[in-house]
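Fold this: aldehyde oxygenase (deformylating)
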Amino acid sequence: MEAPLASWPWGNLGVYKYVLYGPIVAKAACEWREGRSGGWSLHLLLLFALRSLVYQLWFSFGNMLFLTRRRRVVEDGVDFKQIDKEWDWDNFLILQALLGSMVLYAAPSLEELPLLQLKGCIVALLLHVGVSEPLFYVAHRCFHRGYLYAHYHSIHHSSPVPQSLTAAFATPLEHLVLSAVMAAPLLGAFAMGHGSLSLVYGYVLIFDFLRSMGYSNVEVLPARLFDALPVLRYLIYSPTYLSLHHKEKNCNFCLFMPVFDLLGKTIHNKAWDLNKEIRSGGNDRVPDFVFLAHVVDVISSMHVPFVFRSVSSMPFTNNFFLLLLWPIGFSVMLLMWAFSKTFLLSFYNLRGRLHQTWVVPRYGFQYFLPFARKGINDQIELAILRADKLGVKVVSLAALNKNESLNGGGTLFVSKHPDLKVRVVHGNTLTAAVILNEIPRDVKEVFLTGATSKLGRAIALYLCKKNIRVLMLTLSTERFLKIQKEAPEDCQHHLVQVTKYQAAQHCKTWIVGKWLSLREQRWAPPGTHFHQFVVPPIIGFRRDCTYGSLAAMRLPKDVRGLGSCEYTMERGVVHACHAGGVVHCLEGWMHHEVGAIDVDRIDVVWRAALKHGLTPV
């Protein structure tokens, strides 16, 4: 039987739990309509919106790895398991809103309260130090014992990587105790007649600010400050200080002031040394592998880990909420153009090797602007040189970053810098392998669009060697003949040039490397399956046909710290070009994979991927 107050009573409501704010919203609407300014309802709603914003802003800051990577306390990333456990982190806000509505309705009218009263602030501060801090310390130590820890507090400690949202991840009983701790100074100040509106906003938001800071997993307090004023070590905690509590569990129990750990003899003796170590950049580890990505469009740019965890941890889809934030995303885009610099987006660990995703601050449409190509190549080149200087082993280029017309699939950089130690990989060999292994073994004929592209050429040559007839859609006879001559003489007759979609009206296996309109798709017979390597993917207009997704592979099960989805991919799934770079790194191959695809290596790369635990989707 579950312990009382160990789970949330509205836990099964999902997003409908926000209906619980209904009575407060209705009360605020009535007060607004009646022109009454003395009610607390509107302020209560505004206060809890601001509280959510405090936690969200600290979360965003903590996950801006391009700013905070050197000062991260716990080096590991947050995985999907922790994200799912903490999904309803804001339950405590609903609880405290309901409790606050009952308490504040009995409070004096706003018309009777001053906007600010310094005596009230002083009283609240004294009550916080004299009541809230010791009360939390004692209660926290109790929650680390026997029954209370096993049935309540152990859930909070099951999150291995602290984040601001982790601060709110606890059971209802713990949040009731925390609510009492928070309410004591406010109730005391109001009872003494020194309450004010500013006190309510100020104390609650500062309380949340300090809680979020402690759990942010980023050391923000400089060690020099503690060295200059040693007494501050006991007056304010730090993210490092709190992380030791989460790791050791038997130390550093204080709310915000370590002086109570000093008095209770529960202070960790390495707290200050660890703070110095992290502030000096001790957690800035050089990655073994870098995936150099790019932004697709303004909406998808908000599908990054430091914006909304609930969005980035699920496959990308357009939704109304993100559309509302489009102006903010557009403004950020302008800033990215003005301050062009490749930045760290996310990371994960695989087989003890650190894999990072860096982003070139360019949007998809820019890659098709002739005047923008040089600037984009300069950014990619700088990223490769930076990776080479750091000691990165492999850099894999995402879709548009290896565009043939842009840089010859990475050939430009390898030719320009022949002494590169970092291996540059376009990953298209594994992309071709994924597509080819999707094709049923009994297929005798395929229709190929984008046939003379890098991938189209490799797919055509591979299939013709398997005695499969390939209808290659191209208007360029010269390019077709060039590819045909690369095939063995006894296989060349399997490659057939076609110039119209009508030629494939009896072929049920289409491999799409060029975007297809509805009119073009109509030439496919019923039952056709569209394999594709075109970006963006084609739209599935035909209900009597099936459509494959972009080539992708699922990462091995032992991957750690992966907590965001790669664009529209499922959890744990990455684009094949990304996976190709991972395999290149795990195998320790020392060659560059740029330019034309080596058809003879397609099966080699495929077997290596399967050997390392990557699986087709």
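The chain has three domains: 19-279, 289-425+577-596+603-616, 433-550. The longest strand covers residues 353-363.
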